[in-house]
Amino acid sequence: MTGNKAVTTWQKIQLFYQNILENGDKRTDNWLLVYSPVPIICIFLCYLIIIWVGPKLMERRQPINLKPVLIVYNFAMVCLSTYMFYEFTASSWLAGYSLLCQPVDYSDSPLAMRMARVCWWFYFSKVIELSDTIFFILRKKNNQLTFLHVYHHGTMIFNWWAGVKYVAGGQSFLIGLINSLVHVVMYLYYGLAALGPSVSKYLWWKRYLTSLQLLQFFTVTIHTAYNLFADCDFPDSMNGVVLAYSLSLIVLFSNFYYHSYIVRKTKTT
Prior knowledge:
Layout: H1 2-22, H2 38-58, H3 67-94, H4 110-128, H5 131-138, H6 147-166, H7 173-194, H8 197-200, H9 206-229, H10 236-268
Helix pairs in contact: 2-5, 2-6, 3-4, 3-7, 4-6, 6-10, 7-9, 9-10
């Protein structure tokens, strides 16, 4: 009886996994890191191992000078974010997307494929951004390895794997569009900061960068909540996940803002 039950459970797991593989967007199945969740899970596990082992390996070593790498990396991310912002904007505008309710166009039309491709690039950019954490570790900036940082970087790769796998386009375009714009500003800030003290003394606007990040989460929350309760042909399951996730980021970033700019300011006055 136990053996039969175990077989049944295993068969259910296999069926569930097969459904994950086969019920996705056929247009994106052959794209890098899309068809199966296994590769992105492996990347995530490696990411966690690096976070755990990295600081221990660097404990008795001097911080590594990554200035040239950081300058190139941050300004390359500015270029990539600018490209994605343009592609999200152009694709949605030319296809006549609605800001209130936009179903996914699963056709092979040029505009539908253009939107799907920029969604993939956005997803892949989240994999690239895991490098932010590695740079912190190599520079011994372990105070930057906060729960907010690890949670945000680690979960975005899964959110957008699901996005590209099942809903490459539709109303999720707005998340990519807004986030790409915010990341143009964010990586520009970090790129300028990497140039050194001669430039960093002019970067007084970090507080407003955090405010901009919070504004994007509020915008996504309102937009997703509207679509969740409206009669819109977009998966409610996806809307529910995005809504819960954006609310969690509002809480975490608000907490960061409060402790970084309000509590710290009160202590210094």
